[in-house]
Amino acid sequence: MSLLNDAREYLRIDVTDTSFDGEIQDLIDAAKLDLISVGIDATMVSAETDALIKKAIITYVKAGFGYDTDNMPAFDASYDKIKTKLMNTPDYQGV
Fold it and tell me: In this predicted model, what pLDDT tens digit does every residue of 50-94 receive, in sequence order?
């Protein structure tokens, strides 16, 4: 399953509904760039196979998706915690 499909499921959007794909993909791309900008291995981020990296990306998407800002601070905080863990774990560091 693609990360875009995973994001749709986490956002509680029917996986066949592609009407939000542009916004979701932009958020996925922004999350990847953010992780890479803090030193996370770009190859690991691009591979989209590591569970912790996928969780970080999906959490970033949940924080920024749509206009429902009530839960945004909680998702932002969760994303920052996962990102910090990735930044402080040698296996995730870029070369």
Answer: 999 999 999 999 999 987 678 889 999 999 999 999 999 999 997
Q: How many domains does the chain have?
A: 1
What domain range includes position 52? Answer: 3-92
51-58: list long-range contacts, CB under 8 Å, 24+ apart. 52/82, 52/85, 52/86, 52/92, 53/86, 53/92, 54/3, 54/6, 55/82, 56/31, 56/82, 56/83, 56/86, 57/3, 57/7, 57/28, 57/31, 57/32, 58/3, 58/6, 58/7, 58/10
Span 18-28, pLDDT tens digits:
999 999 999 99
